[in-house]
Amino acid sequence: MKLSIENRRYSHEITAKNDGKEVSIAGWVHEKRDLGGVFFLIVRDREGFAQVTLHKGEVERELFEQARKVPRESVVAIGGVVKGEEKAPGGYEILPERMEVLSAASHVLPLDTTGKVGAELDTRLDARFMDLRTERTKHIFIIRSRVLNVIREFLGDRGFIEINTPKIVSAATEGGTALFPISYFEREAFLNQSPQLYKQMLMASGFDRVYEIAPIFRAEEHDTTKHLNEATSVDVEVAFVSAEEVMRILEELITFVYSNLALYPDLNSLKLQLEVPKIPFMRITYEKALELLVEAGEQIEWGDDLSTSAEHILGERIGEHYFITEWPCAIKPFYAQPLEGKDTCNAFDLMHPRLELASGSQRIHSYELLKQSIESKGLGTASFEFYLNAFQYGMPPHAGWGLGVERLLMSMLGIDNVREVVLFPRDRRRLTP
Ligand code: AMO
Predict the structure, then answer these.
(1) Taking Cα atoms as reference points, which of 332, 331, 292, 299 lies closest to residue 315?
(2) Which of 12, 183, 276, 341 has CA atoms 20 to 30 A from the CA of 138?
(3) Which atom of ligand 1 is nearest to the CA of 178?
């Protein structure tokens, strides 16, 4: 028979009903089992596994030896006849007539793709291409893709326009310490920390509702399980609304993503039971959060940001998603709108019991007030001129938020380390692969 790689079938397309038919499959040699007279090759492709059965004496000796010798994880194409076999994956086996080794793997593998022998996260990330061949890791990234599609569907249905803003920028937005400088011809430039300034400027364009899903770069020195130096953020900005309205959009988006994912057939392989959170999420003020923390014995004062332990105490106490509102302006960025007559801002964080997922605010839309706010943070207005300009010729009231994609995935999938949900994570130590 002829081997036709282009016309190969995926393992899940073949069933016992194809008994007697000739098929070609292609994939990786997942496992080899030698039972003396019978030799099994388990071939893995994108969709699953196929068992290739070679009976000694019934197949050509050359073919039998070729199958026996092919190193695990090599890429092979196999042509043969389907036979119904209840005990095999998918209920069939393939009795091969031809086999071609398209790419032989080295004998010592960096990882065991069957999942029988576990590996450290660092080892897995170093050989990520191979880690992605394991069922659990593969499903994390299929889910990640699905989550991004669902977010686009949700926002698209609500009249949002998807935008792309520059990642090479001239100014900081989230505090000057966490910037990556780059050389931009004869000038200094930075990798963007957030599309903040650009999404706000677009509120002066009349687009009214915009979103962006893109990388954000943070030069944080942290080496923690929830910080990346390159993360992905869903950024939303809406004109003619208050912070309360964008908080509603955010909580509805979270439940929409959960409900969609709950239908994902392969959640089982992650041993997950997703419970769709109920909305509206609880709202507590920063002041109330502080009270609860002091009550619990946490050392914290007005104006302190919440530490990881503070987040855990609150998370345990509340036990579901919640918003923290009315933050001291001193610990929120310059663009957050102050609450009248108070030293707090109309800003919020969305919390999962385990960690912060998003933050946002009502924005200052008055040119004068914004200028003052930038100065009050000790920042020079000159580097913000391009941004401030947009506030001088008709800027509607607006609000928005940024949601960390990796944090959302970690919290939904019960994953402890943020690196697990990034294909090739960038952290303090990791610049390759
Ligand atoms: P913030 O700085 O809070 O707000 O970032 C928004 C969300 O992005 C995620 N995130 C990170 N995830 C992993 N590693 C990091 N180092 C990291 N930094 C941030 C978090 C966080 O909640 N411009 C504002 C948003 C706005 O007001 O619209 C901003 O960037 O999930």
Answers:
(1) 292
(2) 276
(3) 16
Nearest to 365 by CA among 205, 172, 203, 247: 203
Q: How far is the CA of 7 from the centre of ligand 1 (A)?
A: 46
Q: What is the pLDDT of residue 242?
A: 97
- Which among 177, 150, 216, 163 is positioned nearest to 404, based on CA atoms? 216
What pTM does this model have?
Answer: 0.96
pLDDT band of residue 262 (cuts 50, 70, 90) is confident
CA of 98 to the centre of ligand 1 (A): 54
CA of 359 to the centre of ligand 1 (A): 7
- pLDDT at position 6, please? 83
- Mapping DSSP to helix (H, G, I), strand (E, B) and coil, where does residue 8 land? coil
Atom of ligand 1 nearest to the CA of 408: 31
In 3-state terms, what secondary structure has residue 289?
helix
Ligand 1 centroid to 331 CA: how many Å?
14
Separation between Cα atoms, residue 129 and residue 365, nearest integer Å: 47
pLDDT at 317: 97
Judge contact between 356 and 327, C-beta under 8 A.
no
**Is it the case that residue 267 has pLDDT exceeding 80?**
no
Out of 209, 210, 213, 216, give the residue to mutate to test ligand 1, the one with the largest number of ligand atoms within 8 Å of its CB.
216
Q: Catalogue all structural domains in the chain, each as residue range(s) with its CATH number.
A: 5-103 (2.40.50.140), 128-421 (3.30.930.10)
**CA nearest ligand 1 atom 29, residue:** 402
Which residue's C-alpha comes closest to atom 9 of ligand 1?
404
pLDDT mean over 19-46: 97
**How would you list the strands of the sheet with 187-191, edge to edge?**
168-169, 187-191, 180-184
What pLDDT is stored for residue 263 in this prediction?
Answer: 84
In angstroms, what is the span from residue 348 Cα to ligand 1's centroid?
12
Say which residue the tokens 């394991």 belong to. 134
